[in-house]
């Protein structure tokens, strides 16, 4: 998984970084199914509602790489669609041209996904993935198409309820957080299941062009369930207020370290907020 934010996964293009060589220190163990306990139930009512829109800038190696928009759509067929759109800009387009949308269809109260859809175009090749989650059998059924190729795969996961890359951030926004709290959950991304494990580090003051915030810092590692030595580092900052805004995320990808930073947000019943001019995240 490229990072907790779906757009970073779309930008990373599905590749995992190289596992450590034998000369490097041994990696810490991945929590077992028994150790990876279910996440607590989400706080209700949700901090977000249909009509909320979040805009984030993406950068890689210090250069502007792309943009991302996250939207909460109206409830449809009893499920809440959470949509993430991402696209590369000029800098990254020289390496990889991507435009994609990931949509998680979640239960409005539990925020657990029932289905996940991903449509993207990478270097003029159209790709589509459809995922159906079956918690009772602990399976994710994946149908995919890439250019002229297509296939199906059945993925299994552990004892936790699974998430997907588009909906994961929304669930994290609703968790009751406290310093030192362990986090462990299985997440679908890039036709693989990943175990995301870590903790709530601490509250930090975060300065962004879009505002000043007290924020929870979540730090975690994502390990592929079928290849545990393939890992990604993930850091996410969530505002410690009633809005629970995803302020920033930093993750490792096959293109190096990438960062997503909140630049604008609009919420039903409140004025839209947009940053003025460029600025760097400070904490």
Structure explained in plain terms:
The chain is mainly β and 283 residues long. It contains three helices and 16 strands. It has helices at 6-12, 90-93, 168-174, and strands at residues 53-60, 63-72, 80-88, 98-106, 113-122, 125-134, 139-146, 149-156, 163-164, 182-189, 192-208, 211-224, 227-239, 246-253, 256-266, 273-274. The longest helix is centred in the first third of the chain and has 7 residues, at 6-12.
Percent of residues in beta strands: over 45%
**Which spans of ≥5 residues are poorly predicted at pLDDT below 50?**
1-22
Give the class from helix and strand content and strand pairing: mainly beta
Helix coverage percent: under 10%
What fold name stands as the CATH topology?
YmcC-like fold
Mean pLDDT: 85
What is the count of distinct domains? Answer: 1
Q: Specify the CATH class.
A: Mainly Beta
Which geometry do the CA atoms define? globular
Element pattern in H and E: HEEEHEEEEEEHEEEEEEE
How many strand units?
Answer: 16
Helix count?
Answer: 3
Sheet with most strands: 16 strands, mixed
CATH architecture: Beta Barrel
Radius of gyration, whole Å: 18 Å
Give the structure's gist in a few sentences.
The chain is mostly beta strands. The chain is 6% helix and 52% strand.
């Amino acid at each position: 998984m490229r990072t907790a934010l779906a757009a970073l996964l779309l930008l990373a293009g599905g590749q995992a970084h190289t596992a450590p060589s034998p000369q490097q220190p041994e990696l810490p163990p991945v929590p077992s199914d028994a150790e990876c306990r279910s996440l607590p139930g989400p706080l209700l009512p949700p901090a977000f509602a249909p009509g909320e829109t979040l805009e984030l800038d993406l950068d890689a190696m210090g250069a502007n790489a792309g943009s991302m928009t996250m939207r909460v759509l109206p409830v449809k067929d009893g499920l809440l669609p959470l949509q993430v759109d991402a696209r590369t800009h000029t800098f990254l387009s020289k390496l990889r041209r991507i435009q994609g949308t990931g949509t998680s269809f979640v239960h409005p109260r539990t925020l657990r996904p029932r289905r996940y859809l991903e449509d993207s175009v990478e270097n003029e090749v159209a790709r589509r993935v459809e995922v159906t989650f079956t918690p009772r059998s602990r399976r994710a059924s994946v149908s995919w198409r890439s250019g002229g190729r297509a296939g199906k795969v059945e993925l299994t996961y552990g004892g936790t309820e699974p998430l997907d890359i588009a909906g994961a951030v929304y669930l994290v926004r609703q968790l009751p957080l406290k310093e030192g709290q362990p986090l462990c959950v299985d997440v679908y991304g890039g036709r693989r299941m990943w175990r995301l494990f870590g903790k709530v580090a601490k509250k930090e003051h975060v300065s962004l062009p879009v505002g000043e915030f007290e924020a929870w810092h979540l730090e975690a590692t994502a390990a592929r369930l079928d290849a545990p030595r393939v890992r990604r580092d993930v850091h996410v900052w969530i505002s410690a207020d009633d809005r629970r805004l995803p302020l920033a995320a930093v993750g490792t990808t096959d293109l190096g370290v990438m960062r997503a930073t909140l630049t604008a947000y609009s919420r039903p019943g409140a004025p839209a907020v947009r940053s003025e001019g460029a600025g760097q995240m400070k904490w």
